[in-house]
Amino acid sequence: MDIALIVIWALLCVVAIIGAIVPVLPSLILIYIACILLQLTSGHPFGWAFFIIRAVIIIFLTILDYAIPSRGTKKFGGSKRGVRGSNIWLIVAVIVLPIFGIVLGPFWLLWLVGLPFLWAYLGEKFAGKHHELALKAARGSFIGFVTWTLLKLVISIVMTIYFVSAAYHVIVK
Predict the structure, then answer these.
(1) Contact 5, 30 (CB under 8 A)
(2) Cα–Cα distance between 134 and 49 in angstroms, integer?
(3) Is-above-0.70 flag for pTM?
């Protein structure tokens, strides 16, 4: 049973790392579920405090997941419409990206990275901002998106490495 749980755990960790880049997959939640699976093994590598602390961290980071692109837009001079534009992309990405992912093939990453920029830009243009100001705000949205994506990737990899150590100790026992 332990081996089956560890195999499922490993698959969840891989999907979570992919989910750091693809907005459709909730990477941090998948890492937490993987952690719970590891706890269900006979080794019980974690205590209750570990799960509570990780849950609080994941809730905080999930909130940041939606806030950082908006903050990037605001930081670079974006209006409420620009922020709404970047937020609309977050919703559109979750709904539309899986549907068009097969059609877009290798171009999905271009879509994923380009649309937050485009939506923030269009939001600023509809707010009546000059082209240069709209581009600056759109750059802020893009920088916020890329920064958060890299941060999620690092967090997912670090947590996976930490869990690999715990899984190793379960297997060795």
Answers:
(1) no
(2) 46
(3) no
